[in-house]
Amino acid sequence: MLLSIKIDNVYADETISKTLIDVEVPNPPTEPDAHEDWADEHLMPLTGTGRTHGEAGYFVEITAAEHPALVGRTYEWGI
User: Could you tell me which of 38, 74, 41 has the C-alpha nearest to residue 57?
Assistant: First the structure.
């Protein structure tokens, strides 16, 4: 399935934003309770900027998807 996502990587001294278009990921599970695990496995690895020190927060918003119900969903990790 193809998605477009907006990523915000929030660090103490800056926020770095990027947009990825047409990212190929497996379809999410049909059970809504399993969506967090799906995002952990397939979306979280797309975040980050290579920093290996300090606290950080990673935020993903699905901006386009083959499954319209996914558009607008957000996920977060870190802080």
Answer: 74
- Residues β-bridged to residue 39: none
pLDDT per position as a tens digit, 22-64: 999 999 998 878 999 999 999 999 998 777 778 899 999 999 9
Nearest CA-CA partner of 73 in 46, 38, 41: 38
Beta-carbon neighbour count of residue 37 at 10 Å?
12
Is the pLDDT at 4 greater than 80, yes or no? yes
Instruction: Determine the Cα–Cα distance for residues 20 and 78; give it in Å rounded to an integer.
Output: 20
* Model confidence, pTM: 0.90
**β-strand partners of 57:** 10, 78
- Residues 6 or more apart whose CB falls under 8 angstroms from that of 58 comprise 7, 8, 9, 10, 44, 47, 48, 76, 77, 78
Beta bridge partners of 71: none
